[in-house]
TrEMBL record:
InterPro entries for the chain: DUF4842, LruC_dom
One Pfam family this sequence matches: DUF4842
Protein name, per record: LruC domain-containing protein
Source species taxonomy: Bacteria, Pseudomonadati, Pseudomonadota, Gammaproteobacteria, Pseudomonadales
Domain DUF4842: 281-478
Keywords, sorted A to Z: Signal
Extent of the signal sequence: 1-22
Superkingdom of the source species: Bacteria
Amino acid sequence: MKRLMCLFASVVLMLGSGQALASVLSFKFQDKIQNDGVGTIDLFSPALKEKVSNGATLEAFRRDNNGALVFSVSLNEPNDGSENSESQGVAIESVELRLIYATETVVITDLSTVTYSLLLKKGNTNRALYSTIVGDSQSNRTSSDILSEMNGSSFDGTLRVPVARDLTDLMGATFTVRFLVVDRKLTDPEAFYDFAGADEEIALLSSADATYLDALAPGRALAPLTLNASGEALVNWTYYPSNDGYYVASYEDLFPKQGDYDFNDLVVAYRVAMDTNANSEVSRITGSGYLVARGAAYNHDWRLRIALPTWASGLATYNFYEASSLTPKLGFPKQQWVSGELDLLLAENIAGEFSDGSSTYVNTFHEQAVVEGPRFDFSVVFDLPVPFADIEEAPFDPYLYVYDTEYEVHLMGKSPVLGYSRNAQNSLTVFKDENNYPFALVIPDDFAPPLAAVDMGLAYPDYLEYVLSGGAQKTDWFRRPVVERVKNVPFKNW
C-alpha cells in the first residue's frame, strides 16, 4: 500500500486550491541536438506520441523543480580524443528557452549545470568558464522512478533553466541548445569537451530523476578539469591525454637532414596527470610511459619538459624500470629540484637500455617479434600550488637529445633548451624543414610506427596532405595506415 501511495504522489502534483496539474514523469522529446552541436527542441512534442506536453505539463515540471525546468542530454560521443565509454562530455555555449504566450513571447537564456570547465572557444585566445554535461555510455541506467522514461535509459548530466513565471497558459515553447565549438587542435580539456558524435537526445526531468542523476554523477570522476560554477575543482585529477590513454611521441633523429623519414628512430608513449585543488591550482604532477620502438643506429636521451611560472618550485622524483619489472633499476629513484620549469631526463642512454639482444632496432621490422620496452614514471610535488592556467599546455615538450649529432629534436614551435647541445651555435632552432616537414610528432596511441626505412608518407598516404596543409587537412591521417608498412606494438597491454 505504501508503494502505491508513493507512485501516486510522484505522478500527480496539486495546486494549493486542489486543482490537479499534469503528471510529473520524466520524458524524452522528439527533436534532438544535431551533430553540428545545435538543436531546437519543441517542448510540446514528446518522443512518444501517446504522451501529452503543453503549458500545464511544463508548469507541473517547473513547480516540481522549485521554479526551474531541468533537462538532461544522452551523450553519444565517439571514443575519440580523450573521451571513452567510461567518461565523455560536451560544453554548452548558450541556451534559449522561448515561451510563447497569447500576447507576448518571453526569452530566457540563463542556465546552470553541476559541472563547468575552463575552455578555449575556437577563434578565441583566452579560456573561459563554460557549463558542461558529463556522462558515460551506459544504456540501461536505473531511474529513481520506474514509470519514468529515464528508467533503463542512457541520460547523463543535468541542465537547469530558471523560470520565474507560470507556464500554464503557454501557446508553445522551444528550447535551443548550442554546444561550444572548442579548438580541436588542443588536448584536454578541449579534446574531452568537444562534440563529434551522432544526434543527442534530450529529456525533461522530474525533480526525483534530476536529483538521482546529479548524485550518480556518471563519468565525472574521470573527466578532466571538472569545476563548479565558482571555478573550484570537483575532480582533483586532470589526465593527459586521458585516464587510460597515452600520447605517442615519434622522432626522426637525423635532424636537420630528413633521412629515411620513417619516424621510428625512437617512439615513446607517455601520459601526465595533474592534481588540482579547490582553487584550480595544481599541487602535484605525475606521469608514466614506455619506450615503444627504436629503429636507429644513433643513441638518444628522452626528456619531458613542462614550462612553469618562474616562481614555481618543488621536488621531482622519477624511476626507470626494466621491461616487466616492478622494481626500479639500480640507482633509482632519482630526485631533482624543480624551478621555473620541469625538465626530466626520463630515459637515458637508450641504446644501452632498449634492444632485442641482436639488433639496435626494436619493434621496427615486420618479422621481428615484439619486445616489451622499459618504462618510467615520475612525480612532482610543488612547494606552493601553481595556477592551472599558468602551466604549459599538453602535450608539453617531449624531446630527444641525439648523442651522435649533439642536437636536440623538438616538436615544431618549440625551442632548444639544453646548454650543451649544438642547436643554438649552429642556428638550428627550428624543427621543420623548408617544406614544413617536422622531425618530431605527437600522435594518439592508436598510431602504429612505420617499418624500418619506410617513409611516413608511404606508410600513411594522407600524411602528405596533412603536412602540406599546415595541419588543416586530413587531421586523422594516422587512422589510415597501409597495414603491411607499419608495426603494431601493443604497449598498452604491457
